[in-house]
């Protein structure tokens, strides 16, 4: 049964807004309610269409009134902050993530109208360490449980959602564990990271990255909201790239720094609000993370349109390269032709000095 | 004056003359190198989900290892026909030599001397991946963490997986215990083979024991550095970095008859007794073939 009243938290961010707009465009859905602490930007507001925006804090019990009054039947929880920069520090970030989720779940538990709950989670729950298997399936758990930051928050959030599922077994719960988002419009950890002309990385380490294009992320969220998938699913594009490889493909300059130096660069860049290098992000940069997407393709029934490679190419349209591949091509082609010229000259000189022995055309004829 | 017509004097049944194939000239090699540099700078090469980088392995890492393989250790491989040309298989070998050079030499042997140029995907301890440079290079060479999840995924994909079940116990054992196999882990490799139904190929490596004869173990230094052992050899740390040069022992690598596991079925992985028995069988086979190889070898450096 398609949902009739959908509540989306975190609509002021790109993905939440895009999902609300997508749902609002679907005539079978009666009402779409968007919730966020900050009002969306004017451009986003225009896109939202008939979405009703409620400026509310999910950390506040007020959210229960919204759910009850509109008799919401499907809740999509996307108001989870991955970086302290957007939430205004690590303290408020944790508050928003953990307490916000608890409040929202408490409100959902009280509301009899709710029959579906979709959580936008992350593959960061698997952690990133040298002891982890190369590819995670949904059944696996982090070998080194993330100690703090976004990954810990996400683990806690998934724990609360599991508890909610136990208390309200008739509610369908879908948990989507997304890999790193990328795309021309979305604002994610990696897009900010790759936008820097000079990208600092951990010296001596190279992470495997799996990307998900923003369009695929939106399609999966829409399908999870309107469909009937229940359970946990990894969402990521096919294929992987090494971090160094992705940086080269984007024509950025990689600057490997020893880990202690990387820490201070991280603190510096956090202070100036560029890119966040928290310890867990650093671990991610060291080891990377790849998830198995068989469940997504078979049970969930969606195959991402963009592979990791294609998603990166699409994102690359918006970031002009620092080291242009055309320049590299031109230089190597010129060097190559120079080498060939030198080689030809050397061959000619060599042939003059030492003529090749003639091919043995004549041979003794055998007796008939 | 018209030129005389040349009439080939070769009889028809003779082979046509083929000029000897010349090795690629230096300019072709240089052009190939430039191509490689261009690919590396623009990132246009493939890597897989385990971080394996065939481009780098073929053009940098294997060429670096080849002189060590053919000149320094003069490795001879036997029984390569026991390694299947396609499909998954698990190569199980003895581990020795203080540093895991034996795994690298087995990789070169299977790539350069096997008719199907098989790539050996090694399984390494987590310590390997914790170390900077070594960890990322290992992944680029196709190594992944020694855990059942990764091993089974590789075997299901039809890869040739190499494992050293002795682990640190084997590689870090003192020189006086050379060529005696240690405990074969907990038999995790057997369960991986049983679950995926691939053959186990026992592999015996002779020669690696003598490259860094470990006569002592500085346990305090090891604990300080977080290493499983800190080797003391006749030349290391006495001669400093010069002591890192491995002794040029003569190597023999023998691949034995495959031990088939498909007939037991995947459920057999849950039968500990069968797993123990198979583990012992593999261990015995390797130990036996080690003794045979040692008899074949005329002298340590011969």
Shape of chain A: elongated
Strand count, sense and closure of the main sheet of chain A? 7 strands, parallel
CATH class of chain B reads: Alpha Beta
What's the CATH architecture of chain B?
A: 3-Layer(aba) Sandwich
Average pLDDT metric of chain A? 88
Morphology of chain B: globular
Task: Tally the helices of chain A.
Answer: 14
**Proportion in helices of chain A:** 40-55%
Structural class of chain A: alpha/beta
Strand percentage of chain B: 5-15%
Derived from helix and strand composition plus strand pairing, the structural class of chain B reads alpha/beta
Number of strands of chain B: 9
Q: What ranges of chain A have pLDDT less than 50 throughout 5 or more consecutive residues?
A: none
Strand content of chain A: 15-25%
Strand order of the largest sheet of chain B: 1-9-6-2-5-3-4
Describe this structure in words.
The complex is a heterodimer of chains A (368) and B (302). The model of chain A has no long low-confidence stretch (mean pLDDT 88). Chain A is 44% helix and 17% strand. The longest helix of chain A is centred in the C-terminal third of the chain and has 29 residues, at 325-353. Chain A has 368 residues and is of the alpha/beta class. Chain B contains ten helices and nine strands. Chain B has 302 residues and is of the alpha/beta class. A seven-stranded mixed β-sheet of chain B has the order 1-9-6-2-5-3-4, sandwiched between helices. In chain B, strands 7-8 form a two-stranded antiparallel ribbon. Chain B is globular, with a radius of gyration of 23 Å.
